[in-house]
Design brief:
By secondary structure, this protein is mostly beta strands. The model has no long low-confidence stretch (mean pLDDT 96). Strands 2, 4, 5, 6, 9, 10 and 11 form a seven-stranded mixed sheet that branches. Strands 1-3-8-7 form a four-stranded antiparallel sheet, with no helix packed on it. The chain is built from no helices and eleven strands. A hairpin with a 4-residue loop joins β9 and β10.
Length: 118
């Protein structure tokens, strides 16, 4: 499964961005879609996930500011990021867990950089 991300870039403190990620390739279903971030010098960590199209999960630091959503028709997951903070600066990676036609699997996107500055 191939993931293509877009929407990252520079943004001012308190601003907003929308990240999107579209999955393509051979799969039966996309079970989980989500976003992870990796800040400089730190490990990759979960930001938000959406399971089955409706069940969402967020890390505490983004609750109330970020919203994850999914368009099942286009196999696209979105991350609406509002009121961005300096600590949100990171490379954001799209992630999916999918059910292939014979086996399950997971894929990662190439990453899109978000830089929040004052």
């Amino acid at each position: 499964v191939h993931l293509v991300e877009s929407g990252g870039g520079p943004v001012q403190l308190g601003g907003s961005l929308i990240l999107s990620c579209t999955a393509s390739g051979r799969f039966f279903t996309l079970e989980v879609m989500g976003w992870y971030l990796q800040a400089p010098g730190k490990q990759r960590e979960m930001v938000a996930t959406i399971t089955g199209g409706t069940r969402t999960n967020y890390t505490d630091s983004v609750k109330g500011r970020f919203t994850i959503s999914r368009d099942s028709l286009t196999n696209t997951v979105f991350l609406q990021m509002n009121n961005l903070e300096a600590d949100d600066t990171a490379v954001y990676y799209c992630y999916v867990e999918y059910m292939g036609f014979s086996t399950p699997g997971e894929s990662w996107g190439q990453g899109t950089r978000v830089t929040v500055s004052s």
